Amino acid sequence: MIAPYFTQALDSETPSALVTGASRGIGRVVAKTLAGAGYQILFTYVSRSVEAKATADEIAEAGGSAAAFALNVEDSVAVAAFFALEIRDKVNLAVLVNNAGITRDGFLIRMKDEDFDRVMAVNARGAFCCMREAAKIMSKNRKGRIVNISSVVGQTGNAGQVNYAASKAALLGLTKAAAKELAARRITVNVVAPGFIETDMTAGLSEEMRAAYEASIPLKRMGTAQEVADVVAFLASDKAAYITGQVLAVNGGMYC
Predict the structure, then answer these.
(1) pLDDT at res. 235
(2) Active-site residue list
(3) Residues pairing with 104 in the sheet
(4) Distance separating alpha carbons of residues 95 and 106, to the nearest angstrom
(5) N or C: which end of the chain has fewer CB within 10 A?
(6) Whole-angstrom Cα distance, residue 230 to residue 207?
(7) Angle of helix 113-120 relative to helix 162-182, nearest 10 degrees?
């Protein structure tokens, strides 16, 4: 970890939301949306310090409070240290959004062990590590919301992404098991599974590929990061107090 970018001093009373991988894309919009809902925001990034600072600054400019931390979520020791030093007894952790994720695409017969293992380590094990530490704090408080960001490919599969699909499918089982374990502590655990969303990654698609993707979507368009963030904000709210262990698909009708 490196020193955080503090936009404003965080207090120990205001409900706080931790969003992993929020320097850009869906994570950034989720962080900004939760800030707009009144949460103090803590978020993580790995290497994009400029983008991370921009996210924190945008939240501050809108009247919110945010702090960004460099953290590799697949490192369980670093995750435990982060929660001990920056979360426990420092802020009122109300929400955890596990958004951090990577891709290392390739076909099954050509995929290297390290590409499979790295994607599983970040996308699935990283979420597990953060959930484990957050659950300890939320259990003590007897309240909390955990939202894991999966993907439509975790439900349907996708050629060339056996590692990514496996990691996102793992989040479904992880969520359902954790929801059963944590319900007695009034902690809900749910999944948001986006389909094809307008992000930096999809911006690089060719016109032909984009058209093919959109043709496969019943609503005939890609979704927006804000549409995903709004569902996350709902699951983080009191309105979703009786929803746990569920998968909410935000995919324009691409159901498996």
Answers:
(1) 98
(2) 164
(3) none
(4) 34
(5) C
(6) 28
(7) 30
